[in-house]
Prior knowledge:
This protein is α/β, with parallel strands linked by helices. It has helices spanning 24-41, 60-68, 88-102, 119-126, 138-147, 188-197, 216-230, 253-270, 288-297, 299-302, 317-334, and strands at residues 10-15, 45-48, 75-78, 81-82, 106-107, 109-111, 182-184, 200-203, 206-208, 239-247, 278-280, 284-286, 306-310.
Amino acid sequence: MSTTPRPVKSVGFIHLVPFDPSDPRKGHEEGLELFEYAEQLGLDSGWVRTRHLQHGLSSPAVFFGAVSQRTSRIGLGNAVIPVGFENPFRLAEDLGTADVLSGGRLLPGLSVHGPSYDDALNDIVHDTGWREEDYGYGRIERLRELLSGAAIREVPEYNGIGGDFDSARVEPHSAGLSERLWYGGGSLRSAEWAGAAGLNWLVSNITSYEEGEADFATAQRKQIDVFRAAHTLGEAARATVARVIVPTDGATAAQREKYAAYVEGRTPRTKAVHGGRTLIAPDVTGTNSEIIDFILGDPAFQAADDYLFELPFEFELADWKQILDQLANEIAPRLGWSRAK
């Protein structure tokens, strides 16, 4: 296992787009403002989480449609869309529309999980058909085929009613979108599948580990290595690492106090094993030099092509901007990253 970091291809952030339920528009508007700010800083990408039945972003394609009209260059990623909540056909239409509006900037990150609510709520959320649905990797394959522009029917003969608008494929079709799919995973099984399927690989601050390897960064590094070993591109296959990283340089005294309390409050859960073999990465806060040393010494980051800073959803717009400012202007350049033009 090489300890020499790969050259950094891109740097970005992940945002939950949290909101006050009494004023949801404000949180969404702040999310749009943050993406505009990140583009001004020259960051390569901004990613959003997807949250259902929570006070976070539930419709990323709609949000990116709005972002696309207020930015022109920054990549728009999902970290991630839980496809179990989606009809692949309708999701393909939504992603295609957002990608066309953005000029081909979407980076859809995906995951698969079966329904996790009780039966009564699953009937409301997924309709009663959830009991027979396949919620495995095949759902991702179906979505990719739909995004690729493959014909899914024969176009009927034009009968003069409604205009000659019929298409054999999902519309709008956005060329290249099906090649920009990422799988957000946290196990060797999903890493091997994503590699064999030819997808890109995204790991975040939750992961599983194998027997005898209860170290977060080592477990993620092994997943990246397994992913590339299974991928036809081998070492050239794209892998992204995301962690909660909070720089204190450039912060006010009040912000530094808030940041320290935040990390201290979350640390106990990072010292425990959850659900058998699930680990949560420690949140990192410190000076820019301390953060750079951490990244350079982390086995998963060493194997990554792209770095993403996860923004704590408990913070506010001024805090998120301070973090992105330090990332773009101080930390990333010292890691060998070049600002987008």
